[in-house]
Amino acid sequence: MRDVDLDCLHLIVRNGPFSPSALAKAAGLPPATVTGVLDRLEKGGWIVRERDGADRRAIQVRIVPERGADVLRQFRGMITAVEDICGSYSPEQLEVIADFLRRTAEAGAGEAERLSR
Questions:
Q1: Across the strands, what pairs with 47?
Q2: Contacts of 2 (CB under 8 A, 6+ apart)
Q3: pLDDT tens digits for range 9-24
Q4: CB burial readout 101-111, b (16+ within 10 A) else e
Q5: How far apart are CA 86 and CA 97, in angstroms?
Q6: 1-63: what CATH class?
Q7: What is the mean pLDDT of the segment spanning 25-29?
Q8: CA atoms of 114 and 117, how far apart (whole Å)
Q9: pTM of the predicted model as reported, rounded to 2 decimal places
């Protein structure tokens, strides 16, 4: 699985379901790239593309529920590493780090929105 595939899979797990175009926007990728990613993820049995119940013309991308544990295994090494790093900081230090990351992400999202206009 490629890095971009894992990134998109992670987005689907955390925030899905997505339409392919919404996933492309969330991932910051061209729609054609996301089509290839979704083809690989679907072929690997990680996701399904389903017709939207409200609008049968629209497609929604969902994680295959039975693969949830497999998805977590894909991220286990990173999760363990981050837990180890976080364990070396005090709760107060983690609050400062979390605030910095949140504010940085908000600034980046705001700037990306401004640039996309």
A1: 63
A2: 37, 40
A3: 989 988 879 999 999 9
A4: eeeeeeeeeee
A5: 10
A6: mainly alpha
A7: 93
A8: 6
A9: 0.65
In this structure, the number of other CB atoms found within 10 A of the CB of residue 99 comes to 10
> Quick one: tokens of 12?
């689907």
Beta strand 59-63 pairing with 47-51: antiparallel
Q: Where are the domains of the chain?
A: 1-63, 68-117
37: tokens are 């990613």
Given a cut of 80, whether residue 107 has pLDDT beyond it is yes
Residue pointed to by tokens 């107060």 = 92
Instruction: Give me the pLDDT at residue 109, please.
Output: 87
Which own/partner contact pairs does 21-27 have at CB distance under 8 Å and 24+ positions apart? 23/61
Instruction: Copy the structure tokens of residue 5.
Output: 């595939």
